[in-house]
Amino acid sequence: MSGASGAGALSEQTVWMLAVRDARDKRSFGLLFDHFAPRLKGMILKSGLGDNQAEDLVQEVMLTVWRKAGQFDPERAQVSAWIYQIARNRQIDLHRKESRPVPEALKQPEEDSPDAGQALAIEQETAKLKAALQQLRPDQREMIEKAYLGELSHSDISRQTGVPLGTIKSRIRLGLERLRHELKEIR
């Protein structure tokens, strides 16, 4: 499901989420569920909840993803960040409901939101990163996006694309070197 779907540089998960958002596509939701449910459960178990509670929370989070799919905006957040934020919020709600103290890992940082200058700097850095990604060779960009934005392992990418593992690693390494060169002024 790479560039052939017409989505260009979007991650596979983004393509699935957009199909859910725009067409209420149940197959795409199933793919999203299969991809994120085990990851969410692992994250939730690490916060100290039991297996049954974790399962219930994953179901609730994914139901929320289905119900609120219309709110997903790929310009504002990656699918994974959007879904993990929903899970995090549900965990906090659950802890409050059960009158438990919220674990440190779930607490919001004490500092206030970034000031306008920080927000502008982040936006500028994001724009530079997007521009730098577009400068990469398409094969390098695809591998970097699958690995870092699509959260796929090198082995998963190899299985998905049919490209040998060594070639994937080389493309990612060369692409990252080029990105470092393109982005050296940000530092």
From TrEMBL:
The record's GO molecular-function terms, alphabetically, read: DNA binding; sigma factor activity
RNA polymerase sigma factor 70 region 4 type domain segment(s)? 128-179
Q: Report the sequence similarity comment from the record.
A: Belongs to the sigma-70 factor family. ECF subfamily.
Alphabetic keyword roster: DNA-binding, Sigma factor, Transcription, Transcription regulation
Q: Which NCBIfam families match?
A: sigma70-ECF (TIGR02937)
> What is the designated name of this protein?
RNA polymerase sigma factor
The family database entries (SUPFAM superfamilies) matched by this protein are listed as: Sigma2 domain of RNA polymerase sigma factors, Sigma3 and sigma4 domains of RNA polymerase sigma factors
Matching InterPro entries: RNA_pol_sigma-70-like, RNA_pol_sigma-70_dom, RNA_pol_sigma70_ECF_CS, RNA_pol_sigma70_r2, RNA_pol_sigma70_r4_t2, RNA_pol_sigma_r2, RNA_pol_sigma_r3/r4-like, WH-like_DNA-bd_sf
Instruction: Kindly list the biological process annotations in GO that this record carries.
Output: DNA-templated transcription initiation
> What are the RNA polymerase sigma-70 region domain coordinates in residue numbering?
32-100
In which organism is this protein found?
A: Actibacterium atlanticum
The ranges of region (Disordered) come to: 97-116
